What does this fold into?
Amino acid sequence: MFVSALILGLIGSFHCVGMCGPIAFLLPVDRTNTVKKTGQIFLYHFGRVLAYSIIGLLFGLAGKSFSLFGLQQQLSIVIGMLMIVVILLPYKTFNKYNFSKPVFKAISKVKSALGAALKKKTPDTFFTIGFLNGFLPCGLVYMAVFGAIASGNAIEGSLYMALFGLGTIPLMTTAIYFGNFLNGKVRQHIRRAIPVVVVLIGCLFIVRGLGLGIPYVSPKPITQMVDANYNCHVISTEAIN
It folds into this structure.
């Protein structure tokens, strides 16, 4: 499951370059000092990954309530179906019911703070920009949040989102160094591939929830494993008697 977070981050980062690329291009990095520039970029990414980790922690806690009631397998199936449905829905329909609208005021404040941070060049500026950048609404982040919920655990949810963030680092770093380096056709092909990757990850969550007994991919529910061990114990005890 955690591998899917890295893949989603890596492939999705092509989308991130389009959405968050302008922020990366405007980073006030010191282009005359390579060491200083590397440190500034590190702080930017560290801020983003930390923000994603906090988001994953919160939504992982939400998912934990389902696992406490033994619904983690069902939750994984529902999350997988949601990921697929969101991709298949027409953009206009999804935009009409965009769940980021209720928190539009909070997002506006984040954008304002981000704009103010971009004008500064203090050591903490790059961390602040990255941290605020992580809370901006993004379709790929929503997909990763689904994965954090499906983890059913605060720590695993945080780790899932952190890995997603780490997956976005290579291409986002390239964007900072080289700016708008992808031509239109390449971007178009990559954007077409992103929905396919999301659907495949959604299918992976569904398979995981089905509990087919495939190690690491679709393990059997814990209750079935306990029952099997218990039955073996009972049989061996009767044989001894």
